[in-house]
Amino acid sequence: MPSAPVPRLDGSAIQINNLFYVLSGYGTLDHVHSHVDVFNFTDNTWCAKFDTPKDMANSHLGVASDGRYIYVVSGQYGPQCRAPTSRTYVLDTQTREWQSLPPLPAPRYAPATQLWKGRLHVMGGSKENRHTPGLEHWSIAVKDGKALEKEWRTEIPVPRGGPHRASVAIKDRLFVIGGQEGDFMAKPGSPIFKCSRRHEVVYGDVYMLDAEMKKWEVLPPLPKPNSHIECSWVVVNNSIIITGGTTEKHPETKRMILVGEVFQFHLDSL
């Protein structure tokens, strides 16, 4: 497979039919991307590039798709560890035109985002200081790239907050998988919002919300703590497949440890 046109960290990706859309992300900590690259699986080429809206977040996006429209929610605007935005957009992948949607009630970094039962659900993420886990859960009715409501609705909070988790909708059930509590923060007084390491806890918790949306059910956790998996899942033969991710840091070097395993959750076992 050909290498991507640019290096990316904390960008987002989503597949629609034979096209793979890769959105924004860091090039380096001092440079962020403001465009989308498109890969065509049929002819094995990077086939297109187009810009994102000027005031859309550049990393830590919440992303979901209905098969034509890609919804992009909140995220970090700018390089290093700058502030998040509450702005929300939708991309029509057929026309490649962007439209704005009602902003999220509060900015979030890397919230779990998914379309479920005609509504765009946004859960958790990190709060405005980039480190404090958010538990909030909001939704808004959408159809064909349009918001059917003017404001987001408050839903039942997730049991555990934080960014970088997978969110999967299957029939009448919504799953939230893995993630972390805490993240890098802007160094106090830094004019460039330079990233400064803070304590993080990576976890493997799995939660499921049923169709009545009355409570989150606790399911068996992942085999190991796993984060940065918001774009690393797929549903195959009634199973959720999670590939890669990051786990707890090395106890001595404090460096990130990558996950090299593939995990499978059988939905038939529920």
From TrEMBL:
InterPro entries documented for this protein: Kelch-typ_b-propeller, Kelch_repeat-containing
Cited SUPFAM superfamilies: Kelch motif (SSF117281)
Protein name according to UniProt: Kelch repeat-containing protein
Listed Pfam families: Kelch_KLHDC2_KLHL20_DRC7
Source species, domain of life: Eukaryota
The organism of origin for this protein: Gossypium aridum
Annotated PANTHER family: OS08G0128000 PROTEIN (PTHR46773:SF3), PTHR46773
